[in-house]
Amino acid sequence: MGHVVTLVALLAFAGPDKAEGHSPSPRLERTFSLGDVRGPVDKTGVAGRIDHMTYDTATKRLFIACVANGTLEVIDLDKGTHAGTIAGLRGPQGVAVSGRSVYVTTGDDGLLHPFDTRTLVAGTPVAVGDDADNVRVARDGTIWVSFGGNGPGGLASFEGSTLARIKTFNLPRMPEGFQLHSTRAAIFANLPAGKRSAADGSVIGLKRPDGERLWERTFSGRAGNFPMSLDSANDRLFIVTRKPARLISMSARDGAILGEVACPPESDDLFFDARSGLVAVIGGGSLPTLNDPGGAGASLDLFAIDGLGRPSRLCGSPLPPHSRTGTLVADRQRIYVAVPMTRDRPAEVREYRLPD
Question: pLDDT by residue (tens digit) across 124-148?
């Protein structure tokens, strides 16, 4: 099946307001078909699961890591067309752009791959560690990658142009989400007890470049803290836990919990939008079970953050089941959500406009 873009005209879904008045929900504007993106059912029970994505401001391209399909898919947002596929990747998971390179991690072989953002020509990959996952680029061009699998984990840094390994911060568990402070020499990481553990998770703050521990905060009765976002200007971290599904606001200075609120289940991405001051949570809904396909509660929800850092839900737009990853493109005022295939519908990427 080919790749097409569909224009969609929908009225915004007005979700319940728990702050002040009513706020327009994210509005679906376009869908980009990923008809060739398939893949088997993975350990979560989701078929054709899609992982993270990123946007390149220079080429206006979206790069999507299709973990089950073993591909990196490329969409040209200006043209509204599919711009290419990089195939043969062993479990692509994390993806980030720096300069003319897009960096992709592959969890099955623990590698970090560089590709040219325009030609998609491959550079030489480097070893990271088991289950190489999320990728972040520091302001100085250093590439940071999380790794660890089911055992001890860590964060590895690489020189941007050569991918020479600079440093490794060893941690007791794999960081499932991490962020780099934009103005301070700090790095923050989510350390859940395990990928499907119901035990309490924790968040750790480290100093760059030596890895000195700044603070650590263990949650009480909160497990599965995977995605993380950061408001550097106000020194606030935003964490989502899965058991139960909660959006938690924390101080990036000392790890103090500022507030929390219920959010969509099974989130793997959330974003802080500095323009509006809102937090967006992408939740894929409940996981499949033996007699239930799952997906209940899938939604793209927006949250306001008050002056004390406390979150409150403003509104939301329902999503297809298991759509739990995406990216915020702030200069377009859009959020892009990855939607995996079903028996009745091919995989796609949905473009949502944020409220003005």
Answer: 999 999 999 999 999 999 999 999 9
DSSP assignment of 199-243, as one string? S--EEEEEETTT--EEEEEE-SS-B----EEEEGGGTEEEEEEEB
The verdict on 26 and 39 lying in the same domain is: no
Is the separation of the CB atoms in 249 and 287 below 8 Å? no
Q: Kindly state whether residue 145 falls inside one of the protein's structural domains.
A: yes
CATH of residue 100's domain is 2.130.10.10
- In whole angstroms, give the CA distance from residue 41 to residue 46: 5
Please name the amino acid found at residue 229. S
> In angstroms, rounded to a whole number, what is the distance separating the alpha carbons of residues 188 and 238?
11
Residue of 325, 313, 314 whose CA lies nearest to 350: 325
- Cβ atoms of 240 and 227 within 8 Å: the answer is yes
Residue 205 shares a structural domain with residue 298: yes
Task: Place 51 in a pLDDT band, splitting at 50, 70 and 90.
Answer: very high
Question: Which is nearest to 154 in space by CA: 181, 131, 172, 133?
Answer: 172
Contact 326, 301 (CB under 8 A): no
Cα–Cα distance for residue pair 18/303, rounded to 1 Å: 9
Q: How far apart are CA 230 and CA 127, in angstroms?
A: 28
Task: Please indicate, yes or no, if residue 340 is contained in any of the structural domains.
Answer: no
Q: In what order do the strands lie in the sheet with 257-262?
A: 228-231, 236-242, 245-251, 257-262
Residue 348 lies in a domain: no
Query: Which uninterrupted H or E stretch holds 188?
Result: strand 186-191
State which of 117, 139, 168 marks the end of a domain. Answer: 168
Question: pLDDT (tens digit, 9 = 90+) per residue, 279-292?
Answer: 999 999 999 999 99
